[in-house]
Specification:
Blueprint lengths: L11 H5 L5 H11 L3 H21 L7 H8 L17 H11 L6 H41 L4 E6 L5 E7 L4 E7 L8 E9 L2 E8 L3 E4 L9 E8 L12 E4 L3
Antiparallel strand pairs: 1-2, 2-3, 3-6, 4-5, 4-7, 7-8
Helix pairs in contact: 3-6, 4-6
């Protein structure tokens, strides 16, 4: 599908995910040679997708295989998959560009929902509730990542953790991702903050590597902070910030 020159600026996310057709990719790479803003945006989306994948990657529990094999006889077999009819080329390109920004959250879906499905075989209603909560969080994360005005910024905390914040003014939400976050220690947890003109307001907890939606209102916040706090969190920071990262605009 052919594009006008102004359309190229909207393709950074799809390019970073390898979601463009060959002719679209070639045209966008030509555009990148002359557009520094798109080069930067594409690089940020590539880094964000990689960190989201790394943050949710977890080894399966040691007993998972044996428990799944023991329960497999009670699981109904799915019917065979029938390939859907191929879309017309023009429509296919349009749908690909609209749908595939959500692929930035695909690694979250695979890890969260895949793991929940396995454990539902053994744990019934409790795990079903956890799966519903995981789906809700995934939907919220996906909405931010897929927003047309989504912007990302990357940082490194004082303890070496790699961090990413993706914010959407339209959604009035921000997503925080941490990778290589050291264990907080007994009786401790990591707490996130939104900096409102020097006033730090609680924005949720993160217990280790992962991705969370920041609570609170990021609309008039200037930065995101990360501190180490007593388990359960604090109403105000009690330690020096490990990270104070300007929100993307």
């Amino acid at each position: 599908m052919k594009h006008h020159a102004t359309d190229a600026h909207t393709l950074a996310a799809a390019y970073a995910l390898g979601a463009l057709e060959d002719d679209e990719r070639g045209a966008f790479e030509d555009h990148l040679q002359a557009c520094e803003a798109c080069r930067l945006e594409a690089a940020e989306f590539e880094a964000t997708a990689a960190r989201l994948a790394a943050a949710v990657a977890q080894p399966p529990p040691t007993a998972a295989k044996a428990q799944v094999m023991a329960a497999i006889d009670g699981v109904r077999q799915l019917p065979p998959r029938i390939p859907a009819p191929a879309a017309a080329p023009a429509l296919g390109g349009l749908l690909r560009r609209k749908a595939l920004p959500l692929a930035m959250a695909a690694s979250v879906a695979a890890a969260v929902l895949g793991g929940a499905t396995v454990w539902q075989l053994q744990n019934g209603q409790e795990l079903k509730q956890q799966a519903r909560q995981a789906q809700q969080q995934l939907d919220a994360v996906s909405a931010v990542l897929a927003a047309p005005d989504a912007r990302a910024v990357h940082g490194r905390a004082a303890n070496g953790a790699l961090t990413t914040v993706v914010a959407s003014e339209r959604q009035n939400r921000a997503v925080f991702t941490a990778a290589n976050l050291p264990a907080p220690g007994a009786g401790k947890t990591y707490q996130l903050w939104l900096d409102h003109d020097g006033t730090m307001r609680p924005a949720g907890l993160i217990h280790g590597d992962g991705t969370v939606i920041l609570t609170g209102n990021p609309a008039d916040a200037g930065a995101v902070g990360l501190t180490l706090e007593p388990a359960g969190g604090s109403p105000q920071p009690t330690t020096a910030p490990l990270l104070l990262m300007t929100l993307p605009t």
